[in-house]
Recover the amino acids of this structure.
């Protein structure tokens, strides 16, 4: 056993472990930078929403009534103020969204203009009891989460007659929206009251609808090819293509319990369930370079370990010592890859930025390896290997559902190759041996 060689290998291995730990410091700093830039983008979205319109939630229509009734107690008549509501018996909503983007500096937000056509019928016979009381207010109301987004071309018709639209819903718990006044004679003229509304809404990234009808049928179409269907109910069918998507929902009082939920909000001020009973879509940005960069940094330790291990094995096999400073330069080049990736992706997109960063990092490291090991062949092999590694990493970033499986398989395959290639190395010997099945003894190692 060569104690001196054993000690040299142990010291070098310890230095490498310490160097890898130190390299995690700039990786943490880069991860913090990604988080900071991502937060800045979210702040820009909030600023655009404050000056334009935010996510939209459409609730309605519904009929809201305030009335007074007399109560006689011990020959004393007192007036009690009451309120009631009526939800549509049938409700059909079709929403068509046209998307566009707004920029501030290098950051952007996805907005949309939507044309929402609402049709349906109220069964007004349920309000016959109002004839016995004094009605103080009747209105047909629509809840809109951000009223700033409503277009001037919006139109509401009741019983085929165009009506005036007024701001607000007149409800304390759901104040944001619009309403149109009705009168009792108009309401009870027939057993049914039809309505048609064309509401033009501008919003940001998300549109959700509450299915208030006893039977609700909702459809959406948009020129956005990356929808994320959200809410308490998923569409019964959907079609997604490169040109956009269409989706359809169906719901009833049996599946939504919407009547009781709405009553709890309006009459008892318990509105948490009502805000959750929605169906809608979020316009997902498929090229969220901050998210992908963050995920790429999560694999940085694996990349650094593999590259450092490759250098260490080359040093052992060739018996040409590599200075720790040279290992440090290699590690810094690997870290700079991620800094290039996040900075370039803000201007060029993630795919192009990843390609440029990969070529820059692999080119620099291959050139450096060629000079350190004085071998163009090893430099070429290193370029191919590192390019393959970054290509596999890119595949893992795109295959979110299989990223863990792919990462585990890559680690297993690399470890297997290292064990196979180094199975003939005598870690305590200073003699040079190839990492193949054939063993060659150089003249320099001949016994003196």
């Amino acid at each position: 056993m060569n104690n001196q060689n054993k000690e040299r290998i142990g010291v070098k291995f310890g230095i490498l472990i310490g160097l890898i730990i130190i390299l995690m410091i700039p990786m943490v700093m880069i991860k913090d930078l990604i988080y900071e830039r991502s937060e800045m983008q979210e702040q820009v979205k909030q600023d655009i929403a404050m000056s334009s319109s935010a996510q939209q939630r459409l609730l309605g229509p519904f009929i809201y009534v305030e009335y007074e009734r007399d109560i006689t107690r011990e020959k004393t008549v007192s007036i009690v103020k009451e309120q009631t509501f009526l939800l549509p018996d049938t409700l059909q909503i079709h929403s068509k969204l046209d998307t566009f983007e707004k920029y501030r500096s290098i950051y952007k937000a996805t907005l949309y203009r939507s044309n929402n056509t609402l049709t349906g019928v109220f069964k007004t016979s349920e309000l016959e009891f109002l004839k016995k009381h004094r009605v103080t207010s009747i209105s047909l109301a629509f809840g809109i989460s951000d009223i700033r987004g409503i277009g001037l071309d919006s139109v509401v018709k009741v019983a085929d007659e165009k009506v005036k639209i007024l701001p607000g819903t007149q409800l304390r718990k759901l104040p944001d929206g619009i309403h149109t006044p009705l009168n009792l004679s108009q309401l009870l003229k027939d057993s049914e009251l039809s309505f048609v509304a064309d509401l033009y809404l501008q919003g940001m990234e998300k549109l959700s609808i509450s299915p208030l009808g006893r039977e609700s049928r909702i459809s959406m179409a948009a020129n956005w090819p990356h929808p994320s269907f959200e809410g308490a109910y998923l569409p019964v069918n959907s079609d997604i293509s490169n040109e956009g998507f269409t989706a359809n929902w169906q719901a009833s009082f049996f599946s939504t319990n919407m009547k009781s939920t709405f009553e709890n909000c309006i009459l008892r001020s318990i509105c948490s369930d009502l805000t959750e009973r929605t169906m809608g879509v979020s316009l997902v940005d498929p090229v969220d370079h901050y998210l992908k960069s963050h995920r790429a940094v999560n694999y940085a330790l694996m990349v650094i370990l593999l590259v450092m291990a490759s250098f260490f094995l080359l040093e052992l096999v060739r018996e040409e010592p590599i200075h720790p400073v040279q290992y440090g330069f290699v590690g810094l080049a690997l870290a700079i890859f991620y800094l290039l990736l996040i900075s370039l992706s803000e201007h060029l997109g993630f795919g192009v930025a990843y390609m440029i960063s990969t070529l820059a990092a692999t080119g620099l490291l291959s050139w450096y390896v060629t000079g350190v090991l004085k071998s163009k062949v090893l430099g070429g092999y290193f370029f191919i290997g590192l390019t393959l590694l970054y290509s596999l990493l890119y595949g893992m970033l795109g295959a979110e559902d299989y990223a863990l499986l792919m990462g585990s398989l890559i680690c297993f395959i690399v470890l297997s190759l290292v064990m196979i290639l180094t199975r003939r190395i005598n870690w305590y010997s200073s003699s040079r041996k190839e990492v193949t099945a054939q063993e060659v003894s150089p003249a320099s190692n001949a016994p003196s």
